[in-house]
Structure formats: structure tokens, C-alpha cells
Amino acid sequence: MATRDLSFYRSYIAEEIRAEGQAQAGAESILVVLGARGLAIPDHVRGRVTSCTHLDTLTRWHRRAVTAPTAEDIFTDLTDLTTE
Predict the structure, then answer these.
(1) CB 33: neighbour CB atoms within 10 A?
(2) Which domain of life is it from (predicted)?
(3) Are the C-beta atoms of 74 and 30 separated by less than 8 Å?
(4) How far is CA 40 from CA 22, 24, 47, 54, 81, in A?
(5) What are the pLDDT digits (tens) for 24-76?
């Protein structure tokens, strides 16, 4: 049985399902990066990341996960804390 490409199908529900999938994938990616770096991921961090559905926020956290000294630091823009 051949599968059909239904990506052209646009509806509110279809778009919502796609967005949820993208958010889940983004959250998982953040947790993978933190884990690969050997950082401890407290339950409150894991919960905040996995409950986020805002893609721009997840993207920002993902970038921070690459260099953040702790998992909690993905929620803070460390450049704002530097002094000149």
C-alpha cells in the first residue's frame, strides 16, 4: 500500500499538530544537547523545556544549551550579566 503525501493539507488542526510536533522535537533537542554536554538536568528544567510550545523560545534555549554552564542557565541570557 502506497503512502500519500498529505503535507499540502492545511487546516487549523493539522497546523496545530505540526506545531506541537515541532515543539516536542525542539524540546528533545535541547535536552539531548544538555545531556551530551554532561550537564545535570533537574526535573524543573526538564519540565519547563518540555512544556514550552513557543518555537522562538525553544530556539533561543537551544542556542544557549550549547554553551550554558548549567542547565538552568539556558533560561538566562548570560550576555546581559557581563560587565564592561
Answers:
(1) 20
(2) Bacteria
(3) yes
(4) 24, 20, 14, 24, 22
(5) 999 999 999 999 999 999 999 999 999 999 999 999 999 999 999 999 999 98
Query: In this structure, are residues 65 and 33 in contact, taking their beta carbons and an 8 Å threshold?
Result: yes
> Is residue 7 in some structural domain?
no
Residue 39 resides in a domain: yes
Phi, psi torsion values for 46, nearest 5 degrees: -60, -45
Contact 23, 15 (CB under 8 A): no
Q: Which domain holds residue 29?
A: 13-73
Q: Is 64 among the domain residues? A: yes
User: What is the spatial distance between Cα 54 and Cα 33, in angstroms, rounded to a whole number?
Assistant: 19
CA dihedral 44→47→48→50, nearest 10 degrees, is: 160
